[in-house]
Predict the 3D structure of the following.
Amino acid sequence: MAEIYKLIHPVKYFNDYISRDIRPDGRKFHEQRNIKVNVNSLKTAEASAVVKCGNTTVVCGVQLELATPKAEEPELGFLVTNVELTPLCSSKYRPGPPSDNAQVQSYMLSDIFSNSKCIDLKDLCIVPDKLAWVVYCDIVCLDNDGSLVDACIIALMASLKTLSLPTVTYDPETEEIKVDPDVRTPLKVDGCPVATSFAVYKLTERNILLTDPSAYEEEMCGGLGAHFTVCLNKGLICGNHKFGGSHLLMENQEEVLKIAKERANLVVKVIDSCIKNEKSIDK
Amino acid sequence: MPGPDLLSSQGLRLDGRRPNELRRIKCKLGVFTQPDGSAYLEQGNTKVLAAVYGPHQAAKSKSSTDGVVVNCQYSTATFSTGERKNRPRGDRKSQEMSMHLRQALTAAIKTELYPRSQIDIYVEVLQADGGAYCAGVNAATLALIDAGIPLRAYACACSASMAWRAGQPEPLLDVGHVEEAAGGVVLTVAALPNTGSIALLEMSHRLHMDYFDVVLSRAMQGCRDIEIILDRAVRDHLAEGWTKQDIVTI
């Protein structure tokens, strides 16, 4: 019965829940979904992580390549992030070139990541002007059930925290490159940016914020990707996005920051304990 | 014409398997919520995901009154191989694989039941360690079953190769990446073992005619073995599903 009601009166159905201070999936307004992290599950990648936030599932694989640094920035290496929204993850995506939404998500992720300054690109340089690492971080979304950026950033940070770079020796005279994959140095990661998404729902006279929205809630609040995302790295804001959808009020800001801060602490704990578990199994 | 050394003097293969042994297959149905049917399958170190959407109304240009249009996309994640792939899909190899996938699965689906409709099957290879196509077919079959689409029989795919041991031919089942790279012959068969029919057959490198039958029968035996594994997975999944539903109704 409820399914039919949802189809015929989608807005009223959603309103009925919200006006009774509960969300359709049974969560409270500021309750988040469970986060599950698993690192190093793929053997072909240098580092990898699988992250599940509720039903949203993403896989991040990191691979390394060597390249010559850009002439304008001879001391910097490269870190390339890419998000792929395959048609596998939702019926909304069609096969073919990446959709506008996918490109925006991908751009937003790399923007947040470079703003957070958690990786110093100078660490990726081996010999200035001659040789540097290219770190390719490819994120594949397997199931998109809302708050995609949150999950992507967790996957990205979990895999980067486990990444270690092989030692490279470069002979300037013969230009010979030797890579020793057995001697590795872990990549320096400064802090850990954590994104938190909120959907803004306008219920007559009242603005309601839903933390960690699902795909259905995102759609009810103005379409996919119209949610408000805050990203914190060690208490500093490194990304703040709100594209379209319902309007956001000034008074919500404080509340949002408080929740984002709590979530950031929680996620850092989850990632750290996951990596610690993985290491203890390896031993 | 003895090929590269694929068997040890004890008759074991490079990864320690016996010649007629499959790699371990782990599979799970209904892993995701968004698609109508989904499945995850691990065959040794090859890890594959399949999702099925449909049957739904076909795009006008594709629509056919004879039966359902099966639309397949095979893509490999950029991090699935040791060296990074630049194009996860749309290159020749994946297009060829998408086509082969469609051919094998169309043979299994009762297409005549859904005229003017379309079924989308997406296969994503997360880690490739040889036999990714075979794993893709097996995963897609499970995903189709999870979606509740009527099939004639299980479509199973398996590969076989050829090695010599003390001058005697010895076919190898379920070829891994190392054996593939060693340059031996690889025969890929997609079959409906239940009906005994072969939906797709592809062979790389060359093989003497006299030995073809031996290799083919070994590959078919592999398909039959895989069918048993898939069937058990489906039954386990359904048994689980029924108990869950019972709890809800009570």
Remarks:
- Chain A has one domain: 12-282.
- The radius of gyration of chain A is 21 Å.
- Chain A touches chain B through 29 residues (CB under 8 Å).
